[in-house]
Write a structure and sequence with these properties.
Elements lengths: L3 E6 L2 H17 L5 E6 L2 H4 L5 H4 L7 H8 L5 E5 L13 E4 L7 E4 L13 E3 L2 H10 L5 E3 L4 H9 L5 E5 H6 L6 E4 L14 E5 L14 H18 L6 E8 L2 E9 L5 E9 L3 H15 L6
Parallel strand pairs: 1-2, 1-3, 6-7, 6-8
Antiparallel strand pairs: 3-10, 4-10, 5-8, 5-9, 11-12, 12-13
Helix pairs in contact: 8-9
Length: 296
């Protein structure tokens, strides 16, 4: 088989995630030759503004998409939560990995055991900021950009009292020991696809070499969560979250939307596991009915 060129952002976490996929491919298809191709995305370069001010999550994938389209890469690996919700049919998502820990976590500066109320809690998303304000009333919440290691450096330099990060990223980096507190998925509903890796390739490619990488449960949950956000988002920057859990033959989806007044609306639904996307869209429609600011 020809060499498969795997495209990745050049951050340490992105490379580790790509190598996890490559290791799984090698283990099940030793005849496949793999080559890692890394690149810096626009979202990695612009660090002085929040994502909603510079074009959203698509800035993390634009260069990788271009590499797929022009043949410099055959497969790209993404943190599912960083992907835009709309798919390009020329480079569709091939599927999703098994989910790592989906929870958000609190990280304090090294050697510190208590929150310093004189400094803000740093987080990188409006979704986290809204839920943090409920969990820590009175604390300032401030945006922080950069990859995980950059954010941790800013924390340890004293710029923040704490950070909120994804457990999955810290675990994949071998930094689980930095975690001070795990938030339950009820306390802080995760971003759609959090903890799951998304794989993307050109339409019509033979992807049989991914048979031991793609995961049915991860795919069902990711598809449902993304369907919920897609139904509500429409390109807006309002905080939205979604988390799905499989149990026996059912899927339970919890969704969050924050309206223009800052009111968080949460809803949950359960149904057959193979109907997750339809259930998610209906859940989003329920929230639309409860929120006058959303177009019906």
């Amino acid at each position: 088989m020809k060499t498969i060129r795997v495209g990745s952002r050049e951050s340490k976490l992105a490379v580790i995630q790509s190598e996890l996929v490559m290791d799984a491919i090698r283990a099940s298809h030793p005849d496949v030759t793999l080559e890692l191709v890394t690149m810096k995305t626009t979202g990695d370069k612009i660090l002085d503004r929040t994502l909603d001010k510079i074009g959203g999550k698509g800035l993390f994938v634009k260069e990788l998409d271009a590499a797929l389209l022009d043949g410099r890469a055959d497969l790209t690996v993404h943190s599912c939560k960083d992907l835009p919700m709309e798919e390009n049919p020329a480079i569709p998502l091939a599927g999703f990995s098994k989910r790592e820990d989906p929870r958000d976590v609190l990280v304090l500066p090294e050697g510190v055991t208590e929150l310093d109320s004189t400094k803000p809690i740093g987080c990188a998303s409006a979704r986290r900021a809204v839920q943090l304000k409920e969990l820590f009333p009175g604390m300032e919440i401030a945006p922080v950009r950069g990859n995980v290691l950059t954010r941790l450096r800013k924390l340890d330099e004293g710029q923040f009292s704490a950070l909120v990060l994804a457990a999955a990223g810290l675990k994949r980096l071998g930094l689980e020991g930095r975690i001070t507190r795990y938030f339950t998925v009820e306390e802080m509903i995760p971003a759609a696809g959090q903890g799951i890796l998304a794989l993307q390739s050109r339409a019509g490619e033979d992807l049989s070499y991914l048979d031991q990488v793609l995961d049915e449960a991860g795919t069902l949950c990711a598809r449902a969560e993304r369907a919920f956000v897609r139904r509500l988002d429409g390109g807006c920057s309002s905080p939205i979250a979604a988390h799905a859990v499989l149990s026996d033959g059912e899927i339970t989806i919890t969704g969050l939307y924050v309206d223009e007044e800052g009111t968080a609306i949460r809803r949950t639904t359960t149904g057959p596991r193979n109907q997750g996307e339809d259930l998610a869209r209906r859940l989003a429609d329920e929230i639309k009915e409860a929120c006058p600011c959303l177009e019906k």
